[in-house]
Amino acid sequence: MATEGSAHGRSAVITEILRYLLEHPDAKDTIEGITRWWIPPQRPQGDEWKRDLVQGAMDELVARGWIVRRETTPSHVVYGLDKQHLATITNSVRSESADDVRT
Known about the structure:
The protein is α+β, with helices and mostly antiparallel strands. It is built from four helices and three strands; from the N terminus they run αβααββα. The chain starts with a helix and ends with a helix. The protein has a three-stranded antiparallel β-sheet with strand order 1-3-2. It is globular.
């Protein structure tokens, strides 16, 4: 069962991933690479930026259709942006940014 903190953490991770992809729309990586390279290292939440939180965020983005999941081998999965949804993603990130300013 997800707590409010983990739901907020996943939302923050989703926003960070989408921001990264808007700047690097051709980027593709594994969960480990996304955790290491796409998420800013210095965050106040610290421990919330774990692999399982990033995996949950990516699963949600795949379910939305915004991210493509490609299994290159049974143990190697690569994720990347579905550029057909670029406008929707841009609007979502702008909305999140506006909410951050109001908070």
